[in-house]
């Protein structure tokens, strides 16, 4: 019998249990995938703690994985057993096998390993929609990316630099600053030692940046708004330090007629054609060498609790892979 991580009650990392589960089967429109690599993301913490509500209890956490199709159900076209695939999903990937809707799978092209695919599906497609759809980054612009040494940050910084943007990244240590500079950041700011808003204004000659990409939330607000040019955009796509408190939107007018948005990947890829196009752009960009996917930590899937402790303790850089 296969194993999976199960959460019966939300809480700390210890809430995740390695349990024997029934072998999944494929119903109409579904496929069974044998996972070969599973990605780790901060959204997994949100579901584990209950900040985001799981669809049912108990549940299996995990939002991205790669593997091999083992079985397809009635009506599935374009996939067959043996195909290498990857996906993003709110929950369910912390398992040796799973059933998933077949139209949520994308084929992994030759030249991209299962580990790389698992490491970049959620983080890489997040970078894609942020840079190419939410605020379309163009040559000559200047951007600020919080948590630049994190999984999304390292991918997005490389990608934005390849588009001709000047990339400023915030980090939490000298080591992370070095890593961010090696992955596309032209300037780094250690938020533990510097006032990042003041430093951004200094770097930009008082102008500010065109866009702030913020996955930090509470600890970076409202200073993120002070980094923007008039009519700049604040893109809040996460809250690793906690949720931003209720905001009087008049602050946007006071600070320069600013724009703000709170996007999420699952809305951007809800349509199958958008999912396939987003993944194809990501795969092409990685295959071209413009972006590399740094896998800096690996853990056995059964030891995911330690991986969560490291992630929450900001001890990780780049991406973490869980091996079933």
TrEMBL record:
Keywords: NADP, Oxidoreductase
Enzyme class name: oxidoreductase
Record-linked Pfam families: ADH_N (PF08240), ADH_zinc_N (PF00107)
GO molecular function, one term: NADPH binding
EC nos: 1.6.5.5
The Enoyl reductase (ER) domain, residue ranges: 11-322
Any one GO CC term of the record: cytosol
PANTHER family reported in the protein's UniProt record: QUINONE OXIDOREDUCTASE PIG3-RELATED (PTHR48106), QUINONE OXIDOREDUCTASE-RELATED (PTHR48106:SF13)
Record protein name field: Quinone oxidoreductase
